[in-house]
Design goal:
This protein folds into 2 domains: 2-128 and 329-375, Rossmann fold; 133-327, Dihydrodipicolinate Reductase, domain 2 (2-Layer Sandwich), CATH 3.30.360. Helices cover 36% and strands 29% of the residues. It contains 14 helices and 18 strands. It has helices spanning 10-22, 35-44, 60-67, 82-92, 103-110, 113-118, 133-144, 174-182, 226-229, 247-256, 274-285, 327-345, 356-359, 362-371, and strands at 2-6, 27-32, 51-54, 72-75, 95-98, 122-124, 147-159, 185-189, 192-196, 203-207, 212-218, 234-243, 265-267, 270-272, 292-304, 307-318, 352-353, 376-380. Strands 7, 8, 9, 10, 11, 12, 15, 16 and 18 form a 9-stranded mixed β-sheet that branches. It has a 7-stranded parallel β-sheet with strand order 3-2-1-4-5-6-17, with helices on both faces. Strand 1, helix 1 (10-22) and strand 2 form a beta-alpha-beta unit. The N and C termini lie far apart (44 Å).
Length: 381
């Protein structure tokens, strides 16, 4: 089988690296429209048996030509392209996976279910970290319990050596980060799916040293379809982002002043979009390199065999020094690579459009993570 990774940035490189190390694909190609980024990826992935190709995803005919020659495509580019890519994949009878990131785009993809099924194609959005890995953990909770009172999802990518004033490191697209901070969060509250403002409801989440007490606050996107999938199965479900204490208090005023706005403002003789300015300032003043860590904690409680039962999942994943791969690349890129490999070997065989909690076998998935030294500690209490 042949597989194509679209996007040669951080996540695309992590996906391609994992495919080379663990998969049985006959051919692995990584594609991008930016020649400089593609050359950088080729240098990063040197020594691996990978083909590199130029691809402009906004050229439908060009995408079709590539898709017609492969079995599976993975999107590691901004979410705004994913619906059109999924639609083309169905037309060319190519399985398609992406990292999600936007509830409306994912909902549009899910609207393609019948067409995908008719063409014997599997489409899986939301295959990264959150949504993605946390979605599969939630499915594991459902499988373990007879009924579930609550599931609380807490995830964050952080620098190992935090620098003021934000104590943060840009580990993925700053535009995506801003979206998480400004868009409303979806919360499942006893059958009702409600919206909550992001960057609120701050709480403390504790980890072993050297991290200790961290803060977590409401952000958008992390639970994606989970409130809908488990509307009748889970009493309460929410998602919050983990940061070093004080981050929310420092960042939120920037958004309150309108620096995430997308309507231009006149400054002198120039029209400037506030969000572009904020992104430029973040890239200039916030570290983009350095060793990082991904912290995850999922808390749940419910009933099993007529007794109160709780499950707690903890993950602390570190920068991979040997391969120069960040923890965020590992925990976002490897899950989608694993899912693609399940399609390749037949562990996933259903056709249509599914999110991870609906189609990815939990036990096999967790075993594959262990092979990559991504350890999820599961405690029953």
């Amino acid at each position: 089988m042949k597989i194509l990774v679209i996007g040669s940035g951080m996540m695309g490189r992590a996906i391609a690296h994992d495919l080379c190390k663990h998969s049985n694909f006959d051919n692995i190609t990584i594609a991008d429209k930016d020649d400089e980024t593609l050359r950088s990826a080729e240098k990063f992935l040197r020594g691996n048996n990978i083909d590199f190709a130029n691809l402009n995803v906004e050229d439908t005919n060009e995408v079709k030509k590539h898709f017609q020659n492969i079995d599976i495509a993975i999107s590691a580019i901004p979410y705004r392209f994913n619906y059109d890519l999924a639609r083309i994949a169905i037309e060319t009878k190519t399985h398609f996976l992406d990292l999600g990131g936007n509830n409306q785009i994912v909902e549009s993809e899910r609207g393609l279910f019948e067409k995908a099924k008719k063409n014997d194609v599997t489409i899986i959005p939301d295959c990264g970290l959150a949504p993605g890995l946390v979605s599969i953990i939630t499915r594991d909770i459902i499988d373990e319990m007879d009924s579930v009172d609550y599931v609380k999802l807490r995830v964050g990518g952080l620098p190992m050596d935090p620098k003021p004033p934000l104590n943060y490191q840009i580990v993925f697209s700053p535009n995506g980060l801003i979206n998480e901070y400004v868009e409303d969060a979806m919360v499942l509250d006893h059958g009702a799916i409600i919206k909550k403002k992001s960057m609120g409801d701050i709480e403390t989440v504790s980890f072993p040293k050297p991290f200790g007490d961290m803060e977590a606050f409401t952000t958008s996107g992390g639970c994606s379809t989970l409130p809908y999938t488990y509307r009748k199965c889970i009493g309460y479900l929410d998602y919050k982002t983990i940061r070093y204490p004080g981050h929310c208090e420092k960042f939120k005023p920037l958004l309150d002043m309108g620096l995430a706005g997308e309507n231009t403002v006149d400054i002198g003789n120039q029209k400037i979009m506030p969000r572009d300015l904020l992104i430029a300032l973040l890239l200039k003043n916030v570290p983009t390199t350095g060793k990082d860590v991904v912290l995850l904690k999922v808390l749940s409680e419910g009933m099993k065999n007529d007794k109160k039962h709780s499950l707690e999942y903890t993950m602390i994943d570190y920068y991979d020094d040997k391969n120069d791969i960040s923890a965020m690349m590992r925990t976002t890129g490897y899950p989608v690579s694993i899912t693609a490999q399940m399609l390749e070997d037949g562990a996933i065989s259903r056709r249509g459009v599914f999110c991870p909690e609906e189609i990815v076998p939990c036990t096999v998935f967790f075993e594959e993570l262990k092979k990559r030294d991504i350890q999820i500690k599961k405690e029953r209490k």
